[in-house]
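Appendix B, Record 12. Input sequence as logged:
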Amino acid sequence: MKNSILKITLFCTLFLLFSCEKKNPKPIKKAYKAGVILSFDDAYVNEWFATNQELKKYGWKGTFFVCRINTLKHHQIQKLLELQKEGHEIAGHGLNHLNAADYTRVHTINEYMNREINPMLYLMDFYGLKVSSFAYPYGGRTKKLDAALLKKFKIIRGRAFREEIADKQGCYFSHSNLIFSFSIDDTHNDFNIPHLLKLLDFAKKHNKILILNSHKTVKNVTGDYQTENKTLEYVCKYIKNNKMKFYTVSNLYNFK
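Logged structural output:
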C-alpha cells in the first residue's frame, strides 16, 4: 500500500513538472520610472558638444542621430566619441539624409539600404561609434521600411504630431521598437512651452517616457530647426525637480 502511494505521488509530481515545462510563460514587462528622451538630429556636432557642457550639471543624457558622417572632420568625430564615453547615445540618421519614403517610391528598399544605411553603419563602426538606433529624416517612413530597418537596428524613430488630448499623443514609449518623437525646435508650428509642460506633466502623472527631438542647439534662435538651450534646461530642471529620469533611445530596448 505504501509503495502504491509513493508511486502515485511520484507520478503526479513528474506530470506537473513536465506539463509546466511545456507552457510558455508570458513575458513580463519591466517597470521603469517616468522620464524623458532628449534626441537631436543631423550633424550639429559642435553645437551639441557645447550644449552638453552647459547641461552636465543636471546629469542629463541625450541621443544624437547623426547624418553625413562621411563629411565630419576629425575633431567632430572625437567630440562624438567623447559624448558616447560620457553615456550619451550616438545613433544613425542616414548617410545623405534622404527622405526614405520618397526615395523608395522610385527605388527599391535594397537600393536605399545600400546607399543610405550600410555605408553609414560601416563608417560609424570604423570610427568606434556604437549604433543601435535610427531616426527617419523628415519622419518619412513606411511599414516595409520599418521591417527592413528593424533587421539592422533595435529601435527606430519616426515623428509624432501634436494632439490636443494628452492621452492621444504619439510621443510616449508604448513598448514597441517603433517610437515617435515630438519636436521642440523653436520655430516648429506645434511647439510652445505651455504644450511642452502639458506633455511633461502627463508623463509624470502616468509614469510615461516622453520622447522629444530637436536639431541645432543654440543660445539664441536665428533660423529654422533650432532649439534654445534654455528650453533644454527647462526640461532638465523639470526632470530633476520631479525625480524623473533621463533615458537614451537604446535604453527602451530593455523595456520593449
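The two ends are 54 Å apart (CA to CA).
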